[in-house]
Every structure is written in C-alpha cells, then in structure tokens.
Amino acid sequence: MKAFLILEDGTVFEGTSIGSTREVISEIVFNTSMTGYLEVLTDPSYAGQAVVMTYPLIGNYGICYEDMESDRPWPDGYIVRELSRIPSNFRSEDTIQNFLEKYDIPGISGVDTRALTKILREKGTMNGMITTKQYDDLTDPIARMHAYTVTGVVKKTSCKEKYILPASDEFEKPIKKVALLDLGAKRNIARSLAKRGCEVTIYPCDTTAEEILASHPDGIMLSNGPGDPKENVEIIKEIRKLYESDVPIFAICLGHQLMALATGADTFKLKYGHRGGNHPVKDAETGRAIISSQNHGYAVDPKSLDPNIAIPAFTNVNDGTNEGLKYVGKNIFTVQYHPEACPGPQDSAYLFDRFINMMGGNN
Ligand SMILES: NC(=O)CC[C@H](N)C(=O)O
C-alpha cells in the first residue's frame, strides 16, 4: 500500500506503508547508526518521535528479542529507505514488518532518507505525518502538525512498579546497591551495573527522593528518557533533594539534563540533535576523545552553569556542545551520551567503573 511522509514545511515523500497503516503525527528525527536498529526501536527516548534511519538497508538481521532495550518499540513512526523482507540470522525470531504491526506502529519505506535527513539538518527537526491517505490540500494536516508537541512521555515509558535486577551470578553478594530512577530507561544501564556486581533497584519516575534515600543506596543512577527535559517539573524537585544528599550520583542523558535543571542551569533544543553511533566526545578527566552512542535533541547550555555548582567535563568534538558535567564538591557526574551503548560503541563503558569507584569501589 502507498504511504506518504508529509513534513511540516509541506515537503511530501511517497513510499510504501510498513507496519501499521494508522495515520500518525510526530517529531521527525534521524539516526545515523549503521547497525542496532532494534536497540534504536526499543529505546524509550524515541517516544513521541518518528525515526528516520539513514542507513539504507534495515531489518537484514531480523528481530532478536534478547537485544531489546525495553519491553516494546517506542517511536511513533519508522522511516526507512529499504526494508529487508528476508532476515538472515540464526538468532532472528521475527521481521521488522511483523514487529511494527504487532505494536501498531506506522512506518514508510522507499523514502530517500538521505535527502530527508539533509532537509532536517538544514531546516532543523520538524514535525511530520505518516499516512496512507492522499491529501489534495495540505492545509489541515500541516495545521495539525504545527500543533503537535511531544508530551507526557516520561510517565508513559517509565516502569509502573519498582523491581530489582540482582548482581550477576559470578558475584556471591552484591558489591554495591544502586537505586536507578527509571525516566524511560534503556535496559543496558541496569545490566551494565549488574554485570559489575551491583544490585540495582529500579524505581518508577514518580518515586519521591525520600523513598529512594530511605533504602540507603550506595549510589543513585538517573536514566535516559524521552521528551523535553523542562516538562518534568515534579521529578526535577525530587532530583534537587537527591543532589542535596551525599549519595554518589551518575546520570545519563535525560537524567543529566534534569540534574542540571535541578541545580539552576538551563537546557535548550538543538537544531537537529545527535542520534547515532559515531559521535566523538572528549572526557576532560582523561584528556581522551571516545566515540559515543547518542540520542538527544536537547542539551545543557554551558553559559547557564554556575561554576561553583557544576563544570563541563565532557564536550562534543564535532560541534562543541556540552556532553557532561562534574558537580563541584559532590560525588556527582553526568553525561549527555550513552555509556550503556546498545546500539553503538562501548568506548565509554568505563564510566560505570568510575561510578563504582565513586561509591567506594569493591569494598
Ligand atoms: N536519550 C535521552 O535521554 C534523551 C533526552 C531528551 N529527551 C533529549 O532528547 O535530549
């Protein structure tokens, strides 16, 4: 069946419908990862967005449920150049087509995703519509696209009840207990800690700081998550209380942004964000640049930082934007990118070890 991708600026791409045939409006963002499409699809930070995959062939190694980064796919739409219909992989359990259909996610294939990405890069992220309906007049769909904003997505993607991920089997008892605030967390954050001997208690996003602190964790992790960081007014208040405690904190992506907002700094929306597996970041502590996995549309404004509270500790080598902070006089550091990888390079996995050392290491 024919499908159309209509952008807010009136550009129309024609292609073939994949997944659900439902009409959807969402924010259109592009991801440049060459592999890891399932991890991208199941990253909760894409809730409210339709993802354009710039790599031209998607689905060739199928769907391996074990590789999912959450319980389900989260983007509201999926845009590809070519969808592989016959996955070739002994681990594969399903196809993208079935996977999208099962979760009622509309998509479109046959789109010149590189031309589309150039538009998004030049004009900035915009809203768009995926539809199987042919509109003769775009006035109404464009008005609806203008009115769309990503909202309420942290609550939607966070777990509903707290649960525990035990330390990996090779540890007789956990070396540390970590409380993870799930703002729409990717699984590999908790897994990266469990693999290093931590018992991780995962809390829903509306958990109070008092409840978390009452469990006396050795450290607190704030996860990644979808949407505009500033929308999370109540969560920011709780994070302020966590900042004021003396518990070591490590935060990733949305968690990093919320800690910055909780301590008086500001965030802003990037023109088209960073989403992919090849973003170079310099770690001021080691002086080294690593290649990172990224998925963010907002960033902390370094001009808004009070140097008595937080100082830039990680910087994007491509565009100089802030990629992480170190908090003065506190055992707190935060990153805008993804040390948990999945998808993407694992160069920054050492940050989980840095966090464990901050909690007192293996003793
Ligand atoms: N991966 C994330 O945590 C993303 C954070 C935030 N939603 C942003 O787009 O900037």
TrEMBL record:
Presence of keyword Amino-acid biosynthesis: yes
Family listed: Belongs to the CarA family.
Known role: Small subunit of the glutamine-dependent carbamoyl phosphate synthetase (CPSase). CPSase catalyzes the formation of carbamoyl phosphate from the ammonia moiety of glutamine, carbonate, and phosphate donated by ATP, constituting the first step of 2 biosynthetic pathways, one leading to arginine and/or urea and the other to pyrimidine nucleotides. The small subunit (glutamine amidotransferase) binds and cleaves glutamine to supply the large subunit with the substrate ammonia.
Record lineage: Bacteria, Bacillati, Bacillota, Clostridia, Lachnospirales
Reactions catalysed according to its record: L-glutamine + H2O = L-glutamate + NH4(+); hydrogencarbonate + L-glutamine + 2 ATP + H2O = carbamoyl phosphate + L-glutamate + 2 ADP + phosphate + 2 H(+)
Keyword Membrane: no
Originating organism: Ventrimonas faecis
Domain Carbamoyl-phosphate synthase small subunit N-terminal intervals: 1-131
Active site (catalytic residues): 253 (nucleophile), 338, 340
Region of interest (CPSase), residue spans: 1-171
Protein's UniProt name: Carbamoyl phosphate synthase small chain
Pathway: Amino-acid biosynthesis; L-arginine biosynthesis; carbamoyl phosphate from bicarbonate: step 1/1; Pyrimidine metabolism; UMP biosynthesis via de novo pathway; (S)-dihydroorotate from bicarbonate: step 1/3
InterPro entries, per the entry: Anth_synth/Amidotransfase, CarbamoylP_synth_ssu, CarbamoylP_synth_ssu_N, CarbP_synth_ssu_N_sf, Class_I_gatase-like, CPSase_GATase1, GATASE
UniProt subunit comment: Composed of two chains; the small (or glutamine) chain promotes the hydrolysis of glutamine to ammonia, which is used by the large (or ammonia) chain to synthesize carbamoyl phosphate. Tetramer of heterodimers (alpha,beta)4.
UniProt-listed SMART domains: CPSase_sm_chain
Top EC group: ligase
Enzyme Commission number, as recorded: 6.3.5.5
Keywords recorded for this protein, A-Z: Amino-acid biosynthesis, Arginine biosynthesis, ATP-binding, Glutamine amidotransferase, Ligase, Nucleotide-binding, Pyrimidine biosynthesis
Superkingdom: Bacteria
Positions annotated to bind L-glutamine: 45, 225, 227, 254, 257, 295, 297-298
PANTHER family: CARBAMOYL-PHOSPHATE SYNTHASE SMALL CHAIN (PTHR43418:SF7), MULTIFUNCTIONAL TRYPTOPHAN BIOSYNTHESIS PROTEIN-RELATED (PTHR43418)
